[in-house]
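Consortium newsletter contribution from the modelling node. Members have asked for a concrete example of what our holo predictions look like. Here is one, prepared for the iron/sulfur cluster complex that several groups have been discussing at recent meetings.
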Amino acid sequence: AYIITSPCIGEKAADCVDVCPVDCIAEGDDQFFIDPDICIDCGACEAVCPVQAIYYEEDVPPEETEYIQKAIEFYKTY
Ligand code: SF4
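And here is the predicted structure:
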């Protein structure tokens, strides 16, 4: 799955929501989240994010890896 990381906080541009072909990006309090169970790894969201907040899970920078768990937690209660 692709993961939305810290640059989304305070930005929430939502360009990703418009391009996702499976509509798996939802708005949280401080950022958007990708549902890792539905994401088909197409990469469309990564390309349009104006703040480069989105990474493929294996490419998330070490200081941003907490956002992988944050997305999982978000969809547990969504
Ligand atoms: Fe949606 Fe594709 Fe981004 Fe996954 S990689 S969240 S399917 S746009």
